[in-house]
User: What shape does this take?
Amino acid sequence: MRMRIAAAAARIMAEEGIDDFALAKRKAARRLGATDSAALPGNDEIEAELRDYLALYQADEHPERIVELRRAALEAMRALERFSPYLTGPVLAGLAGPYAEIELQLFPESSKEVELFLLDRNIAYEASDERRYTGDRARAVAVISLAWQGQPLRLSVFDPRDERAALKTSLAGRVAARAGIAEVANLVAAGRAGA
Assistant: This one.
């Protein structure tokens, strides 16, 4: 059952554009009628299934989509360079679905600096607070959502001291991979879909 849920969750992520592993797991388990939460696969199992699914069923369009998303991310990072941007999430991992957001982490002196930057350029955005994890603590950070070159862009605005900290996907989760401008530029130049 665990393997079936992992495969179904991967298919949901690839076809429905869901980037949240927990949500994809729950949907897959519900669709398969699984009631035992112990049968739920780990994110790494789903990620492996997702990579296999994308290589098999979206071998042509997926790599092109990833390169396009990374190009847009790189341009956004260059525009936001003074805020020390890092690419993270499915676009960096090479697992972004058709409706994926480009996720950037920013480390300005103040979150208001980012909002003023966007206002000065007449860029419409929505701001909210979300829970993020640094080291062994959870706290609220500003999250700014906007459209960048027709792509959804999500900016998580951290304290500048967090730039050197281990930022995790959840309190018990793994450290989130991230890449700076030079690393993303190398990925774009290589034209590779994998991270």
User: Anything to note?
Assistant: Helices lie at 2-16, 21-32, 43-57, 61-79, 90-93, 111-120, 181-190. The beta strands are 86-88, 102-106, 125-134, 137-148, 151-157, 167-168, 178-179. The two ends are 29 Å apart (CA to CA). The first helix runs from residue 2 to 16.
